[in-house]
């Protein structure tokens, strides 16, 4: 792939800039989606509880938050 970029006329500096852009875009998108998901879960107790139950069921968690708090 690197050879294809060089053949297309891109310089090493341009290739590095493209890679940085792709990495940053992926990081920012993931960060924003995670932030929004946590906001929505915090805003909706019913869905938050459903997600917690599913995670507990999948990972067989016997020390869920409810049990620790009680």
Note down, in words, how this protein is organized.
The chain has 70 residues and is mostly helical. It has one domain. The chain contains four helices and no strands. The longest helix has 32 residues. It starts with a helix and ends with a helix. Keywords: Heme, Iron, Metal-binding, Monooxygenase, Oxidoreductase. It comes from Orchesella cincta (Springtail). Belongs to the cytochrome P450 family. Its cofactor is heme. One of its GO terms (molecular function) is monooxygenase activity.
What's this model, at a glance?
With 70 residues, this protein is an all-alpha fold. The protein contains 4 helices and no strands.
Q: How do the helices and strands follow one another from N- to C-terminus?
A: HHHH
- How does the overall form come out from the CA principal axes? elongated
Q: Mind telling me the C-alpha Rg?
A: 22 Å
Mean pLDDT: 83
Domain count: the total is 1
Helices and strands, with pairings:
Layout (H helix, E strand, L loop, with lengths): L1 H6 L4 H32 L1 H15 L5 H5 L1
Features:
70 residues, mainly alpha, 0% strand, Cytochrome P450 4X1
